[in-house]
Automatic annotation (TrEMBL):
Taxonomic classification: Eukaryota, Metazoa, Chordata, Craniata, Vertebrata
Positions of the Fibronectin type-III domain: 161-250
Protein name (database record): COKA1 protein
A Pfam match: fn3
UniProt gene name: Col20a1
Subcellular location: Secreted, Extracellular space, Extracellular matrix
Keywords: Extracellular matrix, Secreted
Species whose genome carries this gene: Corythaeola cristata
Domain VWFA stretches: 1-133
Keyword Secreted appears in the UniProt entry: yes
Amino acid sequence: GLSQYSSDPRTEWDLSTYSTRDQVLEAMRNLRYKGGNTFTGLALTHVLEQNLKPDAGARLEAEKLVILLTDGKSQDDANLAAQTLKNLGIEIFAIGVKNADEAELKQVASEPLELTVYNVLDFPLLSSLVGRLTQVLCTRIKEKSNKENSDIPVNTGPQLSPTDLKISAVTSKGMHLTWSPPLRPPKKYRIVYYPSKGGVTKEVVLDGAVSSLQLSNLTSHTEYLVSVFPVYDTVVGDGLRGVTSTLPLSSPRSLRVSELSHNSMRLSWKAAQGATQYLVLCSAAPNGAED
């Protein structure tokens, strides 16, 4: 499977799209480069939420590996998103080109770093990594597969996936989430949320016995994408997803003018809920009239 990213990650094809080597190579030849920003954290979250799902071709019993290819320093928190993937047993290989930040590559990648971090000065030099990287990847998959637990469930379904996400009590700064737990209670929940037009990805981890959460300190008048993932010992269930916009900040109302004189006036208004200060701007009427 492959996704490209800038400020908005885009899935090029899923794990289940092609079934032969030739089909994958042909898709690579037809791939068009997507320029833009470098929101690596958002991209890693996209891979987890969109590409590593059963309905996108991710087999729960299979090992999960992500290869990150980047040519710049991330403009959001890549380390937090990477840590989330690693906590779920997903191994990350980080490959930097040109202006990539090597310290960030080492933060994002899984251990041991001598096997998972690579850096080259320009794109044509990537070809020099292919042989070694292929060998390392195949060896890692084989090692991890030998350790895998034979009783991992082969599908999620309603047993492992929560349902009925409800978003309520939406204000300019927060919202309340509730959901129905799966038939088999998870060990914990991961709640991931971020502005749909790009921004910092945040997450909250809850105990599996809890099925509601109050999100606070959000940005007003902003559309947020929210995902709820159940986490088990050996697998992550299918996530619930929702989209909701926070409300605009409230405005003062009913402006009134009184106590007029030749050089002063009194203004009064109905308060704006939550406002701690007001900025009052005054200018002469544009036509220069005295009133």
